């Protein structure tokens, strides 16, 4: 009987009792996708993704243990139970949906080709990039897109990280990089010797998703739903806007 009274009080007062209160959630991120996730000068995980993960854990009243995991290991190790969730700017694909549960999108950013000024390429089509080197990170929606649309006309160069692809562009080892526009901003703004620019129009969202999600193990609907609730809360209470403003000149939700 006493438990029924406690439950009634909780409902009346609107008290939020998180399923994860007092526990620790293990969070994986890539650590090579600045400013979303990277390793800071103290050797600790940092960036927009990390701050969002910590804000969500705060809502859930639990601790976050953030670890760095190579991109290609994220989904396999999630399935193996090495950690509870991934916050690493991952887009949704049919193949990935078979391996994990995806939350609602927590940010969006257009995808586009990045190139050097005076490259002579104003629009990107199989005809205009014939024989050119197009680079991006392997095992991503970007590499899938390049292989689908350009493998018969251009040379596809795949790198371990997206930052490495942009570095190849700066060094002249690639003609264009297909990348998230927001991750490219630091390179476009700060690479003085070789400034970069967006080439052509952003890729339409129906061809290359601009939305990024958090992943939990397949079947863990309870954690997925709790994270969706927490996402709504940090967007409503201003925490999301404060984190976004720390890294970007506009809200990226």
In words, what does this structure look like?
The protein is an alpha/beta fold. It folds into two domains: 13-108 and 210-247, Periplasmic binding protein-like II (D-Maltodextrin-Binding Protein, domain 2, 3-Layer(aba) Sandwich), CATH 3.40.190; 111-199, D-Maltodextrin-Binding Protein, domain 2, CATH 3.40.190.10. Helices cover 34% and strands 24% of the residues. The protein has helices spanning 2-13, 48-59, 74-79, 94-97, 141-149, 162-170, 181-190, 221-236, 239-247; strands at 24-29, 32-33, 37-39, 45-46, 63-68, 85-91, 100-102, 107-108, 111-115, 133-137, 155-159, 176-180, 197-199, 211-217. The strands form three sheets. Strands 1, 5, 6, 7, 8 and 14 form a six-stranded mixed beta sheet that branches. It has a five-stranded mixed beta sheet with strand order 11-10-12-9-13, with helices on both faces. Strand 2 and strand 3 form a beta hairpin. Residues 1-17 have low confidence and may be disordered.
- Globally, the shape reads globular
The percentage of residues in β strands lies in 15-25%
State the order of secondary-structure elements, H for helix, E for strand.
Answer: HEEEEHEHEHEEEEHEHEHEEHH
Any low-confidence stretches, pLDDT <50, length ≥5?
1-17
Question: What is the CATH topology classification name of the largest domain?
Answer: D-Maltodextrin-Binding Protein, domain 2
Specify Rg, calculated over alpha carbons: 20 Å
Number of helix segments? Answer: 9
What class, by secondary structure content? Answer: alpha/beta
Number of strands: 14
Q: How would you characterize the largest beta sheet? A: 6 strands, mixed
Instruction: Give the fraction of residues assigned to helices.
Output: 25-40%
- Alpha-carbon distance between the termini? 44 Å
CATH superfamily of the largest domain: Periplasmic binding protein-like II
- Which architecture of the largest domain per CATH? 3-Layer(aba) Sandwich
Oligomer state of the chains in this structure: single chain
Mean residue pLDDT: 89
How many structural domains does the protein architecture include?
2
Text of the CATH class of the largest domain: Alpha Beta
